[in-house]
Fold:
Amino acid sequence: MENSPQMRKWLDDLGLSHPLVIAGPCSAETEAQVLEIAHALKDTDVTYLRAGIWKPRTRPGMFEGVGAIGLKWMQRAKEETGLLIATEVANKDHVKLALDHDVDLLWIGARSTVSPFIVQEIADALEGTDKVVLVKNPVNPDLSLWLGGIERLHASNIKKLGVIHRGFSTYEKTKYRNIPEWQLAIELQNKFPDLPLICDPSHITGKRDMIFDVSQTALDLNYDGLIIETHCNPEEAWSDAAQQVTPKSLVQIMKDLRIRKETT
Ligand code: PEP
Ligand code: MN
Structure:
């Protein structure tokens, strides 16, 4: 797969004066919750509203997402606020439903990137799409699996590609939920400098008070964007409660990141 300036085009076409910001709850919970967060993010730096509809939980018995009904809530959020909408897809049925509901950005989650069969199924279902497709790194620190995912989507003629760095599982206890292993993302960036690289500080840190520092590191490393889990009532969130920030905190984080940039 050749690197090509075409890869950046979708990002450049958004005409942003700041890093790309994707924000919204870990999971869509209710229609009211989705609409409340969408309206709170409307006049901020956020371009895409994210929400998980199908949630891949490591252990069974936890909240596994509201399913396709959530796509209707997101569509309504888009109509009411003008935000573009983004969700995770993990099989071809998810892809079909997401496309039927005008989802603008689809991402492949860390637990799917580890499976070449699943990635291929999604790539086939998305063949030739003009939607933005982002590939999260696999849960384990394996650059080849990440590259393989990108190559499969590229081979399916998906032009608006990008990657999300969400950190890697480790057996050791660290201050991170998923250790960043920045060098792996940098290696990928060196191989494909024109592939937009987005940092997911929420899943790297697992804690809202660490989001700013990890976001700052990502921007210092020239990342193109951030995906930050945001919820109007984070403590009550049905998944990933400890890492979600309020819309107000998100606005403050973006402001502080900008001030840091201007003063360095
Ligand atoms: C998510 O974005 O909510 C998610 C499940 O992320 P990951 O695939 O990185 O674990
Ligand atoms: Mn999450």
Observations:
- The pocket of phosphoenolpyruvate (ligand 1) is lined by residues 26, 52, 56, 88, 109-111, 136, 166, 203 (CB under 6 Å).
- The chain has a mean pLDDT of 96.
